[in-house]
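Aim 2 progress. For ANKRD1 protein, the working sequence is reproduced below.
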Amino acid sequence: MLRVFGAASGEELAAMSVEEASAGGGDQREGEEWREKWGGEDGRQRFLLEGSPLDETAALESAVDLQLVLLPLCSTSPLRVSSFNASVRIGKLPEVETMLAKAQDPNCASRDGATALHEAFWAGQVRIAHLLLEARSDTGLADNGGRTALHLATQDSLLELVRLLLDAAADGW
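Predicted structure tokens for this construct:
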């Protein structure tokens, strides 16, 4: 049996046979259901096996007990927001991925109200915009001028980014 416990509470959150976990563990729908039930969006969900982080590619071949840890989003100082948004704007994909994996809030805003998603759209950073949407960036947030990411994409005729937003909405991101 594969059993998952909340690390903080010790409460059993899920149990399934190793066969069930192997057959459906990588199913995208099940992963979405898991995130909805226990939270874990934004790359903040970590599994521990005997107190050590479990690698995403690990194969579980026998009965084990796992702990689920949900990391809170980190606090966002103006300097951290500026650094994150600058990395987005200039297209530093690996750096943005690393910051999100370290629980960077994708919705933090600069003084002018611009979020990382705004920055990605202003700069035409399609791959980073996709990554931010996967990290649950809020597409409805407006900057201090009242502009959302969709406003930015349509005013600059960035059709690829408009499609990305429409696909994200259709997928429930």
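The mean pLDDT is 78. This observation will guide construct design in the next reporting period.
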